[in-house]
Amino acid sequence: MKRIKSTFSIKNLENISGIKSHTIRIWEKRYNLLQPERTDTNIRRYSLSSLQKLLNVTLLYNHGLKISKIAKLDEAEIPMLVREIALKSSSEQVSINAFKLSMVNFDSVLFDVTFDEIIARTDFHYAFTRIFLPLMSELGILWQTGAISPAHEHFITNLVKQKIHTQTEILQRKQNPKDNKNIFVLFLPEDEIHELAILFLNYFILNKGYKTIFLGQSITTDSLETILTYSTNMKFVTYLTVEPNKEVIDDYFKNFHKLILENSDAELAILGPQQIQLDLSKLSPQIKTFRTIEAFEETYFSSRVFV
Question: Whole-structure pTM over 0.70, yes or no?
Answer without folding.
Answer: yes
